[in-house]
Amino acid sequence: QVQLVESGGGLVQAGGSLRLSCAASGSIFSIITMGWYRRAPGKQRELVATITGGASTKYGDSVKGRFTISGDNAKNTVYLQMNSLKPEDTAVYYCNAVIGTIVTMDYWGQGTQVTVSS
């Protein structure tokens, strides 16, 4: 079993910054990709950012240039540095990990609330 534990959410004013962390633990053999998705009230879940192989990154269009994803392979942890936050960034942020070798599995964290006030 794999557990993803998120931290770092909270309330911030527009223009401010937050840093999210997600640590993976348990039966981890090979982490392929880790990343963040978010779901705002009344909207579908959307990609925020992912990191593959500890180096290759992908960002959602709405966060490019403002958010940075990074990883610490030794700690099985991924970070999301969020700068220049906007009220429209308000959402529950979910950590995701794709783990496995021949057979891969998707794992999700419990979610952490990020609220940006105007």
Write the layout of secondary structure elements.
Layout: E1 2-7, E2 10-13, E3 18-26, E4 31-39, E5 46-52, E6 56-59, E7 67-72, E8 77-82, E9 91-100, E10 104-108, E11 112-117
Parallel strand pairs: 2-11
Antiparallel strand pairs: 1-3, 3-8, 4-5, 4-9, 5-6, 7-8, 9-10, 9-11
Order of helices and strands: EEEEEEEEEEE
How many beta-strand segments?
11
Tally of alpha and pi helices = 0
Q: Please state roughly what percent of the residues sit in beta strands, choosing from under 5%, 5-15%, 15-25%, 25-35%, 35-45% or over 45%.
A: over 45%
> Which outline best applies?
elongated
Q: Uncertain regions: pLDDT < 50 for 5+ in a row? A: none
Radius of gyration using CA atoms only: 14 Å
Instruction: Report the span from N to C terminus.
Output: 40 Å
- Briefly note the structural class of the backbone: mainly beta
Mean pLDDT: 94
Helix content: under 10%
- How would you characterize the largest beta sheet? 7 strands, mixed
Can you put this structure into words, describing what you see?
This protein has 118 residues and is mainly β. The protein is built from no helices and eleven strands. Strands 2, 4, 5, 6, 9, 10 and 11 form a seven-stranded mixed beta sheet that branches. Strands 1-3-8-7 form a four-stranded antiparallel beta sheet, with no helix packed on it. The radius of gyration is 14 Å and the shape is elongated. The N and C termini lie far apart (40 Å). The relative contact order is 0.32.
List keywords for this structure.
single chain; 118 residues; mainly beta; seven-stranded mixed beta sheet; four-stranded antiparallel beta sheet; 11 strands; 0% helix; elongated
